[in-house]
Design goal:
The chain is 84% helix and 0% strand. With 98 residues, the chain is mainly α. α3 (40-64) runs antiparallel to α4. It starts with a helix and ends with a helix.
Length: 98
């Protein structure tokens, strides 16, 4: 199964694409599961951290050439998902406090 995934991922960045995708999916699932337990300050930090991680990954992927565009897309989508989930949790807490 892993070999078929590697074959599928070759045009998008190969093993790097698979590793980044796995880490992105795992971190989004962890954020969804733990967002109620995290502080508002930590959720704000996750928004900034997502942007700080996605920017260099995107630049590095673009510098590596056309074969790594999937890594750039996954990094940007991951950062947007982290920001949306964190902001929604912060907004829900603000509404509950009123």
């Amino acid at each position: 199964m892993l070999e078929s995934l590697r074959t599928w991922a070759t045009p998008y960045g190969g093993d790097v694409f698979l590793y980044i995708s796995f880490l992105a999916i795992a971190s989004v699932i962890a954020l969804v599961a733990l967002k109620d337990r995290l502080s508002t300050m930590l959720l704000n930090r996750f928004i900034r951290l997502g942007a700080l991680i996605a920017l260099p990954l995107t630049i590095i992927a673009m510098e590596l050439g056309e074969q790594h565009w999937g890594v750039a897309v996954v990094a940007v989508v991951w950062a947007v998902l982290v920001a949306i989930l964190s902001k929604n949790a912060i907004t829900a807490r603000t509404i509950q406090k009123k």
